[in-house]
Sequence to fold (184 residues):
Amino acid sequence: MSAPISQKAPGVLAASTAAEIALAAPCARLSLRARGDLAPLNAALGLTLPTRIGQVVPAGERQVICLGPDEWMIHAPSDDTAAIASACADAYATLPHSLVDVSAREVTLTIKGAHAAELLTIGCARDIDGIPVGEGRRTFFDGQTVILWRDGDTAFRMDVWNSFSGHVFDLLKTGCAELAAEHA
Fold:
């Protein structure tokens, strides 16, 4: 039996002339839910939470994506978890909210290359080209809920639950090889 994706070292997992699939380094992932005046959380986090679904706000090494009208996912360096939790706890008296560390739940796969967008269509019914660079979406990939970030014209990140990461990776790896043969 092969090792789960989450136990592999970060780096390239599969590559072809069509695309490259890699495992990103682990990071802190915090699920944030809040309603109302977000000013206390904005001050605590040192950024302005995005309010448009799909919008990504970078702040140094942190990134926040708006997943819903009252839901965000925060990506940060792993050693920032305690500082973020503490800052948000201080804001709780002013704005009750939920902040949950989900770092161990997911891994991030990077997908880049000339045919990266086409590769993603093997499991995602969404119009990949319709996602603007610098934004992201919660979507489905072959029935699995993922967060798809578009970092460039030909560069994407996909957050996928550990339990489904092997399945998603296998589909991407197969598609990577098939697209390379198709475009040869």
Summary: Helices lie at 39-45, 81-91, 116-120, 162-182.
